Each structure stands twice: as C-alpha cells, then as structure tokens.
C-alpha cells in the first residue's frame, strides 16, 4: 500500500499544468534521425505543390511575351487572356466544397493523389494546346488551366484576401503588359526580367520564412503593407510620367523595373504568412472546413485579379494601380484590428487568444490547475477523482 507522502506526490503530478511540461527532444543530428529524414521528405513533396502554384502563374506571364504563343492561341484579346488566367480560380471555387468533403471523409492522402493526377493531365493538355489550331488551342489551354486549378485548390488545402488583392497579381500574371506600357519590349528582355524576378522572389521568400519565427506574423504584415503601398505609388508615378511624356521618357520606364522588383519582393517577403497563418489558428477538427473557407475566399479574390487585371490594364493603364493603393490601405486597417500574433504560441494558447477564457482548452486548463481530489487520510481512505 502506498504511503501518504507517495499519494500526495501523485496528486501534485496530476495537478501539473501542461505549460510547464517540457517538450520531448532527442540529441541526434538531423542526418542521424531516420524518422525526421522520412518526415521531411514527405513534407518536401507537399512543398512542390506550393512551388507549382507560383510557377503556374509565372509561366503564363512569360508566355504572354512570346509572339509564337499568341499566334498559336489566335492572338487572344485582353478579355480572353483574363479568362484564361481566371480558369484556375474558377476551378478552385467549384472544387473547394468537394475538396473539404474529401479531406474529412477520405483523408489527406487521397486529396494529394487527386492533386498529382490533375497536375499531370492539365500539363499534358497545355503542352498540346498549340497543335490543334488557334480557336481549339485557346479552348484546350483553358481546359488545362481549369484542371490544374482544381488540383491546386485540393492540394493547397492539405497544407494551407490580402495576398491576392495587394496588387502583386498584376505583376505575376501581366508583367509583360506592364513593361510594354512602360516602353520595355522584346521577348528576350521581358523573359530575362521575369527569370530574375522569380529568383529574387524565391530568395526574399526564404528570408520571409526565417523572419516569421523571429519578427512575428503580425509585425511582418503590418510593416510590409506600408512598404508595398510606397512601391505601388512609385510605380504609378513612373507610369504617369511615361504616359504624359508621349511614351518617350526612357528613364521613367527603367525606374519602373526597380519598383516592380521592389513591389514583388515585398509581397514575397510577407507571402509565407498567408499560407501558414490559417492553419495555425484553426483547431484540427475545424482545419479542413476552415481552410476550405480560406481557399474559397482566396480563389474568389484571385479570380477577380486574374480576369479583371487584364481588362483594367488595357482600359486604364497606369491609373489602374490606384485601385490597389486604396485596397492596400483598407487591408492594413483590417489587419491592425483583427490579426492576432501567433509567434511562439502553442495551439492551446492560440485558441485562448481567439476564443478568450471561454475556450474549451482554457476550461480544461483551469480544471487541471485546481484539481479535484476527494480523499480521507488514514485507514478510511476512499477513491480519489482527478480531472
């Protein structure tokens, strides 16, 4: 029979708060930890999906600079180009309810398998689109984008409005149009700028990932958005100067290249926050549905950007950037009031930050802290109840 001291010690152990329990760690180096290597390999496959998401948007911007691509698709108008870019977002909106059901009913593996198959089929159709005639080629390319968009929506929900409506989509999808309006032409020059811009965005994105754990999510976004606004205004001014000079001011055109890079770089720096933040603030039971809502909103905002940007640039030119300047101000105000910092917090602490002391985890923690112990000392001791 246990002594009274041993029983008291057991009671103290049961009253220990979860915040004070140290994490389980090992002292193996990463290359000696086979489990960690296997886990990171699986995670890297998911990251390929995110890389393909960015690549899909970048390659369309590059294709618009190629005369052969335009010829193969029948020289599509600004409206048709907008529809082509929007197809992936239309697919995302339509597939999101199905993807949410698939994740909850069949698990994440089947969602990733569906994603992989759609990426293969969509890519093949896109490759042969230029060989079936101009009108047929355009239609087949739209089908390709639709299939890829449906797969991306499902794949991203297994991992993951401001990121879509900060104006960077104008650069990502229509950089060739932006530079052409500023007097920079030629497929070699435009694709060269795009290649450099992609590498620059990749490096800045890595810096953003590093900063998330040190600067914090909220501070990163609140500090980056004013910077993006400054670059937006600067790009607008360059466009206005070039247009009012009768499209002869070469200096304004060259200055715009710098501000395009700066604009895109600032967006890439904050970009990682918008893919990690939704998953951080959602409990496991709500994660698939919550990410479904996030993805639905993201796809709807992307649909606007992909389709309307083409028409807006063709109709308004540099004046169209002012629309995003206004949106950036509205977004910053909303982020200031509603975004909660999650840096260094556990999932339980994040739940309390959003739901307050009425959160289920807070009530359980209070019960653990108080502890309910029913016992009598001595031979007449009865059962103890631990909550």
State the shape.
Answer: globular
Number of helices: 14
Distance between the termini: 23 Å
- Strand fraction: under 5%
Largest sheet data: none
Q: Tally the beta strands.
A: 0
Summarize it:
By secondary structure, this protein is an all-alpha fold. The protein is built from 14 helices and no strands.
What is the element layout, followed by pairings?
Blueprint lengths: L3 H11 L19 H30 L3 H6 L5 H29 L1 H21 L5 H24 L10 H14 L5 H26 L4 H28 L5 H32 L2 H33 L4 H18 L8 H9 L4 H11 L17
Helix pairs in contact: 2-7, 4-5, 4-6, 4-11, 5-6, 7-10, 7-11, 8-10, 9-10, 9-12
What does this 3D model show about the protein?
Residues 1-16 and 372-387 have low confidence and may be disordered. This protein has 387 residues and is mostly helical. The protein has helices at 4-14, 34-63, 67-72, 78-106, 108-128, 134-157, 168-181, 187-212, 217-244, 250-281, 284-316, 321-338, 347-355, 360-370.
Q: What key phrases describe this protein's structure?
A:
387 residues, 14 helices, single chain, globular, disordered C terminus, mainly alpha, disordered N terminus
């Amino acid at each position: 029979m246990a002594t009274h001291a041993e029983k008291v010690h057991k009671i103290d152990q049961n009253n220990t708060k979860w915040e004070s329990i140290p994490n389980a760690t090992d002292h193996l180096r990463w290359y000696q930890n086979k489990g960690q290597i296997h886990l990171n390999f699986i995670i890297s496959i998911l990251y390929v999906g995110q890389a393909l998401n960015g690549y899909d948007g970048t390659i369309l911007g590059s294709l618009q600079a190629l005369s052969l691509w335009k010829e193969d698709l029948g020289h599509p108008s600004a409206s048709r180009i907008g529809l082509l870019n929007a197809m992936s977002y239309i697919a995302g909106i339509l597939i999101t309810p199905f993807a949410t059901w698939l994740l909850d009913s069949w698990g994440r593996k089947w969602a990733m398998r569906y994603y992989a198959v759609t990426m293969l089929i969509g890519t093949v159709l896109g490759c042969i689109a230029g060989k079936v005639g101009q009108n047929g080629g355009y239609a087949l390319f739209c089908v390709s984008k639709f299939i890829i968009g449906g797969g991306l929506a499902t794949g991203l929900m297994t991992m993951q409005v401001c990121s879509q409506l900060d104006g960077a989509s104008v650069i990502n999808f229509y950089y060739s149009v932006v530079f052409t309006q500023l007097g920079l032409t030629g497929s070699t020059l435009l694709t060269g700028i795009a290649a450099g811009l992609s590498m620059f965005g990749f490096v800045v994105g890595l810096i953003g990932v590093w900063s998330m754990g040190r600067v914090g999510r909220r501070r990163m976004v609140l500090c980056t958005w004013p910077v993006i606004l400054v670059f937006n205004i600067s790009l607008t001014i360059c466009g206005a100067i070039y247009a009012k000079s009768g499209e002869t001011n070469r200096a304004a055109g060259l200055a715009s290249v710098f501000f395009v890079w700066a604009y895109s770089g600032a967006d890439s720096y904050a970009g990682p926050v918008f893919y990690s933040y939704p998953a951080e603030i959602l409990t496991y039971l709500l994660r698939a549905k919550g990410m479904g809502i996030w993805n639905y909103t993201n796809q709807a905002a992307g649909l606007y950007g992909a389709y309307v940007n083409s028409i807006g640039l063709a109709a308004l030119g540099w004046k169209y950037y002012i629309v995003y300047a206004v949106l950036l101000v509205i977004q910053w105000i909303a982020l200031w009031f509603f975004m909660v910092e999650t840096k260094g917090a556990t999932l339980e602490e994040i739940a309390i930050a959003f739901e307050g002391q009425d959160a289920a985890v807070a009530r359980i923690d209070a019960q653990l802290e108080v502890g309910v112990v029913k016992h009598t000392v001595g031979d007449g001791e009865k059962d103890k109840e631990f909550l």
